[in-house]
Amino acid sequence: MPLPQPPAKSLPSQEAYTLGGGDTIRIDILEVPQFSGEYQIPPDGVLTLPLIGSLSVEGLTLEQARQTISNQYSRFLKQPLVTVILLTPRPISISVSGEVNSPGHYPLVQIGEAGIARGPLQPTVTRALAEAGGITLSADIRRVQIRRRQNQGSEQVFTVNLWELMQTGNLNQALVVRDGDTIFVPTATQTTLQEMRQIAATAFAPAPDVPRTVAVVGEVTRPGTYTVVGENPERSQETLGFPTVTLALKQAGGIKPMADIRQIQIRRVTKAGTEQVIPVDLWQLLQVGDFTQDAVIQEGDTIIVPTATEVNPTELTELARANFAPDTIQVSVVGEVVEPGIVQVPPNTPLNQGILAAGGFNHSRARSSSVELIRLNPDGTVAKRTVPIDFAQGINEQSNPVLQNNDIIIVGRSGIAKFADTFGTALAPSTRIFDVLRIVDFFGIWSSD
């Protein structure tokens, strides 16, 4: 549950390390080795020392502990020279919630640093976020809240701006956390693709090689759920190696010819339970090199590729060259061609090239004036059209249309029924297409001129 907005409060100064139960220290008294030794501070913070007995060091800095111990031994020794060194700092326990990948309670082990007055390298809020699996791409890192209990039972709330830390290097925003602190990362109400990319690159976000499972639906070859892993940053400098929309599209077999890449959406459910809709325009990526459009994805995202109302031939050529287009599509060419069967051709190949990929017309038998084009539509319908053939034509929807995956080109003689035996041979590897052809034949869609 989101925390209420706290009143503006200045950040606390970075204080020296204070001792408490669980710390291990070493006390050395010069030339008095029998009074020197290592001690683990009990939960109540009270040490039992030779000669002086019980002494509380709870809440004292190393320098304050040194002075307190020195004062006690000065009753028995002349000008004792005391050294206090922290050997092993105690772990602290914090809670992290909100826009992090793994909310929960975490122990943070402090990194010891030997010295008289210097304490360990104390854990900061950014380290705590990293321990919790890193922030999500929906995080509002300008308003990260830390709740801290006070001795009197009251509570202080501090707000740190980690965006300022990223942009200016203001280390005051890297607040040191204390035992019992609660960290809450709110959900951003609005963000940009550029900011999401910068957030993904922080040290307190998941690493690029962390797999992310996403759903890809719409105008892609194989809609479904995919686990996407980032690429080598040296090979993918523009994306910094992170899993992105285009990588997810490639795993889904690439986009279809009717994909509207200007209107792609990422639907993302936040930790607060709300849904964010992030528009992505991959046409801008192709045309002007806007790599921010190749948005970084995160666990649980749904990528939706809508259907374009119309696509002109120039755009189809551009899309065929995109790295998120499929490498090949499958087209069946049957009837009077040199090598009837299933051919693999690049995306957006025109019909004329599909015929040539099957060896071209069998000129002694083929009816070369026109062919039949059968298309299996995504909605389950089957469309048939007669296309006049002119090999001099460029891409043209009327006489040289762009082929789609699983299209069927039928090259006839005097009548399609005369080569029905070809179907069993040419289409044997593709049972699904053969079944569709039988259905089409059953409904009398064939002509018999």
Give a written overview of the molecule.
InterPro entries: Poly_export, Poly_export_N, SLBB_dom, Soluble_ligand-bd. One of its GO terms (molecular function) is polysaccharide transmembrane transporter activity. The protein is of the alpha+beta class. The protein folds into four domains: 24-88, wza like fold, CATH 3.30.1950; 92-200, Outer membrane lipoprotein wza domain like (Outer membrane lipoprotein wza fold like); 212-321, Outer membrane lipoprotein wza fold like; 329-442, Outer membrane lipoprotein wza domain like (Outer membrane lipoprotein wza fold like, Roll), CATH 3.10.560. It contains ten helices and 20 strands. The protein has a five-stranded mixed β-sheet, with helices on one face. Strand 3 (46-49) and strand 4 form a beta hairpin. The longest helix is centred in the N-terminal third of the chain and has 12 residues, at 62-73. The chain is rod-shaped, with a radius of gyration of 35 Å. Mean pLDDT is 84; it is low at 1-8, 114-119, 424-430 and 442-449.
CATH class wording of the largest domain: Alpha Beta
Give the CATH H-level superfamily of the largest domain.
Outer membrane lipoprotein wza domain like
Strand content: 15-25%
Strand pairing plus helix content: what structural class?
Answer: alpha+beta
CATH architecture of the largest domain: Roll
Mean pLDDT: 84
Tally the beta strands: 20
